Amino acid sequence: VPLFFFLRFLFQRERERTQQGRGWEGGYPEIVKENKLFEHYYQELKIVPEGEWDQFMEALREPLPATLRITGYKSHAKEILHCLKNKYFKELEDLEVDGQKVEVPQPLSWYPEELAWHTNLSRKILRKSPQLEKFHQFLVSETESGNISRQEAVSMIPPLLLNAHPHHKILDMCAAPGSKTTQLIEMLHADMNVPFPGMLWTALWRVGMPLCWVVFKFLNIFLSSGDGTMRKNIDVWKKWTTLNSLQLHGLQLRIATRGAEQLVEGGRMVYSTCSLNPIEDEAVIASLLEKSEGALELADVSSELPGLKWMPGITHWKVMTKDGQWFTEWEGVPHSRHTQIRPTMFPPKDPEKLQAMHLERCLRILPHHQNTGGFFVAVLVKKSSMPWNKRPPKLQGEPVEPREPVRSSPAHPTEGAAADPAEPESKAVSGLDDTDITERTENVENSGSKKDGVCGPPPSKKMKLFGFKEDPFVFIPEDDPLFPPIQKFYALDPSFPKMNLLTRTTEGKKRQLYMVSKELRNVLVNNSERMKVINTGIKVWCRNNSGEDFDCAFRLAQEGIYTLYPFIKSRIITVSIEDVKILLTQENPFFRKLSSETYSQAKDLAKGSIVLKYEPDPTKPDTLQCPIVLCGWRGKASIRTFVPKNERLHYLRMMGLEVSAEKKKEGTVVAQQSAGSCGPPGDEASAEHGAEPAASADSSEDMSPDVSVDAAPGPSGPAPAEAALPR
C-alpha cells in the first residue's frame, strides 16, 4: 500500500510537470488554453470589470507562480524570514542567468509580517546558478523540516479571515489537501509559551505541534471544484462546462448549512471555493442566508487584509445549462430541467431581501489583479440559533423526547419537484457555548461507559483488505506505577495533565508516551466506536532499553518538547549559542568542549535525559533571536542531543552556519562555518559510548548528528574529520 501511494504521488508530480510544459521528452501535446463556452459564460455574467477581459484571459493562460509560506512558532518564523531576506535574497539581487536578470522573490503584500512570498523562478533556472541552487536546497530542506510550506496564495486567505486565536475551537470542513488546516494550526500555536491551546487533535508530524480537530467555534469550509484553478489544472480548459457547478451546488449548500448548524452564536464561518461561478458562490451564500432567517449575516471584511485586491460579490446572475441555454428565474425552468436546476441557484427576487443580504461583502479574487488563481470567499457570523435548531441534542444515557418537525423555508418550494438537494439531511445543535459542550461530554465520560481508557479495538496485526488494524489508544490510569518515576525525575509541575497521557498498547512494555489536550481526551474516550482514529497525540517520552539504570525509564522526545517544556522544573541546562553549535555538530562532546557555565549546571546532574535551553540575548541582535529547546542526554563526561537531522540543519542555518548539499560520505551533511562565528570544535570526534542510552527499537526519530562543521582553519589547526553516530 505505501508503495502504491508513493508511485501515485510520483505520477501526479510528473503529470503536473507535463502540464506546465516541463514533462517527459516527447510527452503529451500541449493543451490548447481556449474554451469558447467559458468565455461566453463569464462575459455574459460580467464578473470581470469592463476593459479588463483581455488581461483576465491572458493571466489565466500563464503558469501560476510558486508561493511559499513561512511556518511554525512566530519567533522561529521571524528568524527564517531574516535568513531569507538578508542572505539568500540578497545574493539574488544582481544575479544574471543567460543574460537575463533574475527576478528576486517578492512578499505577498496582503499577508501579515511578510511571512508569505511568491516567485516565478522555474526548476530549469534554479539549476543554472550556484546561488540559485543554494537557495533551492535551502527551500527543500526547510520544507522537509516543516518550516516552509508550499501553498497557493489564494489558499492562504480563508485562515487569515477566520482570525483564529489559541483559545478558539475550529472545524475545518472539506480540508484536503490540508494546507489551510496546517496554516490554522500554526495560528493556534503562534505563541510557543502556550503548550495546549483550546484545540482537540494532535497529529501532523511535519508541523510538530498539537493541532485543531473538532468542535463548534470557528469554521473554515473550502470546496474545490474549479475553474479558478485553470492556471495549474490545465485539464479544466478542455473539460469546463456549467454542469460541474450545477451538480455541486446542492452538495455545497448542504455542507455550508451543516457547518452553520455546528457554529456557536458569535462564531465566524468562512466559506471559500476555487471557483469563479456564482452558482457555487453567491447562490450558495444567498440561499444559506435566506433559510437562516436572520441567524447568519455576512461580515464586512473589506479592511481586514490591506493590500489584497478583490471584486465585491455580485447580486444578479443567470443560470446556464451545459448546452448554453439561459434561465433568469426559477419559474421559467421547464419541469424536465428540475433535476438539474434548483430554485436555490437563482438570486432572491425580493429587492429588499436581496439588499439586506449584502452580497457585495463577498470577495472574488481575479487572477490578473495580483497574479494568483481565481477564488471566492465569504465570511459569515452567527447571530442566533438556526431556526430549526432550538433545543440541545440528547446525549447517550438521556431520555429522548419527540422531535419537532423541521420547518420548511418558503424559499424552497417542493411541490411538483424532486426533493430539494439543498435541504439539510440532519439537524444538530448550534449555539451551545464551549462550557456546556465540555461539561456534557465529561458527564458521559464519567458515567463509566468506557473501561480503562481504551480508545480503540484491541491490538491486532491481522491483515485486512487495505492494511493492518490500528493499535488502540490507551490512556495511562491514575494509579499506573509508570508515571511517578517520570514525575519525580523531571520534577513535573503539579498542573501537568497526566490524565491526558496515552500509549498504543494494552500489553507489554509501553514504548512511547503521547500527550493530548483535555478536549481531545473526551472525544477519544466517548467516540471510539463511531470513528477510526489513525493517529493522534504528540510524542513526549520514549522508553530506553536500559532506562531503568538511569532512575527513569523514559527519555524526552524532541517532537513534543515545546509542549512538555513548560511543565518541566528540573534537569534543565541553559546553554550558549556556541554550545548549541557544538552540540548539533558533534556526536558526544566532552564537558570541557562546552562553556564553563554549561559544565557547572551539568556536573551535579545524574546521568539521563535533560533539557537544553537557549535563550536569545536581545543586546546582541546579530545572534539568533528565537529560543531553542533541545532534548539531550547527560552521560558520564559528555552531553549529546536527540534531535532529528532536518531539525539540526534548520537550527544550524538559523545560527549562520552554511549547510551544503555535498555529502562526503553516506549519511552525513556538511555545515560550512565562517571563521570567527564559532571557534574550531577541536579534534576529538567521539565520546565514550558507554554513556549513551539505548534508544527504543521502535523509535522513529533520526537522532544521529549526521552533521559536521567544515570550519575555516584557525589557530587550533585544521577542521576536524566528520563522524556519524551509529544508528
UniProtKB/TrEMBL annotation:
Its EC number is 2.1.1.203. Residues 56-383 form the SAM-dependent MTase RsmB/NOP-type domain. Keywords: Acetylation, Methyltransferase, Nucleus, RNA-binding, S-adenosyl-L-methionine, Transferase, tRNA processing, tRNA-binding. The keyword Nucleus applies. The keyword Nucleus applies. Residues 711-727 have a biased composition (Low complexity). This is tRNA (cytosine(34)-C(5))-methyltransferase. It comes from Ursus americanus (American black bear).
